[in-house]
C-alpha cells in the first residue's frame, strides 16, 4: 500500500452511515426549499438517503442559494458522503401575470383576451409573459393554464396584437400560474436573460450539474455547452425533456447531453397523459444504451407534501421507475415545501430498497451488450465483461477507474449486482457520479503501477468498512498507467 494512502482516509466517519447510504442503488434527488434549507435539515436528509440536492432557480435569490451550497459543501467535507448539487435553470417558462384579488372564475364559453401589456388581470384582459404569443399561435391552437387545469382555444389575433381565446375547460385563474402551448412552436430561446445570470452564478459556484429546461433540439444544448467551455467549467449538463419537440430529437439530445431528466409535469400537459408511461420507459432505455444518467421527476410522492403516507399509486410509480432502470428519482415540492421532508425521503428509500432487494433485474446484458459501432467498443466490452465476471464469481465489489467519468457511467449502465466503486483523480467527478445508479466514488490521484493502485483501492475500501478479508473483488483499469488509456484490463482479487 502506498505511503500516501492516509490522505484518502482523512474523514472521521460513521462507517455504518456510509455503508447504509450505498444500499439503495437508485439515487434520490431532493429539491431544497424553505422546508429543508438549514445545515441540520440537509444533513438529516442525506442520512436518510439523498444523493443529489436540486436548487430550483425559478425561486429564491442567489444569496440564499449560496448559503445552501455552503451547507452542502460542509457536509461533503466533514461527513462520509459525496453529495452532488444540481442547478435547475428556469428556462422560458410562460406564465400569466398578476390577477385581481380572488382570482378569475372562468367557465366554458367565456371569451378572454391575452396581452403582452403588463397589467392586473381581469375578465377583460390578462397579461401573459410571452411577447411573441400573437406571432406564434394559430387559430384553433390550445393553450393550457395551471398544469392543464384550464384549457382555452385561440379564436383570433386582434390588430393590437392581443390574442382572443375561448374557454373550453373552466376553473379559477390565479396569479403567476404557468402556461403551456402544446400546439404551438415557441420561438423563445432556451436560455433567457435570467438563465444567463443564473448560469454565471452556477459556474462561479462550480455546481456539479446544470439542468436546461424546455430543451427542444440539440442546438439548445450546444449553446449551453459553449457557455460552459468559455468559462472552462466542468459542470455537466442535464437536458430536461418536457416538450414534444424534444421527443422528435431525443436520440441526438441524449448524445449531446451528459444526462436526462424526464420532467413529467409539463410533458404531461403538452402531450396526451396516456402517452407518458411509455415515453418514460423508452427514454430510460435509450439513456441506458448511451450510458447517460436519467432522472424521473415530478409528482412522485406529491401527496406527502401535506400527508404522512403516500398514495398507493405513488408507491407504484416510484417502484416502476426503479424497475424500468432509472438512475434517480426526484422529489420537488415534497422536500422543498412539504411538512415532513425527512419522512418523504425515508419512505422513498424504503420503496427503492424493497424493489432492488426482490425484483430488480441486474446485469441487463440482453439489452445492453457492447455496440459494434461504438467508438469506445473495446473499453465497453471490457466493462461489460467485468460486470458479467463479477456476477459469475459473486464478487463483493466491482471497482473502476476513470478520468472522464465514462468508465463510471458505462459500468453503472450495465447495472451490475456487485456494489460499484469508482476511483478518479478528477475531483469534480467524485460528486457528479453520485447521480449515477449504484456508484460510490472516491478521489484518488496516485499513478504508480496498476498492481499498487488496485492494492490501494482495496485497502481504502477495507478501511471504510466496505470490504473484508476473504471478499472477492473485480477491478477494471488501464495499463500502462502513465498513458491514461481507455479501460483495457480486468483483474480478480481475493482480499487478504
CATH class of the largest domain: Alpha Beta
Largest sheet: 8 strands, parallel, barrel
Instruction: Summarize the amount of helix as a percent range.
Output: 25-40%
Number-wise, the strands total 22
Shape: elongated
Count of discrete alpha- or pi-helical segments spanning 4 or more residues: 17
**Low-confidence segments, ≥5 residues, pLDDT <50?**
1-21
Rg (CA only): 24 Å
Span from first to last CA? 12 Å
Strand order across the biggest sheet?
Answer: 1-2-3-13-14-15-16-17
What is the strand content? 15-25%
Number of discrete domains: 3
- Quaternary state reads single chain
> Which structural class do you get from the secondary structure elements?
alpha/beta
If you consult CATH, what is the topology of the largest domain?
Answer: TIM Barrel
Output the CATH homologous superfamily of the largest domain.
Answer: Phosphoenolpyruvate-binding domains
CATH architecture of the largest domain: Alpha-Beta Barrel
- Overall average pLDDT: 92
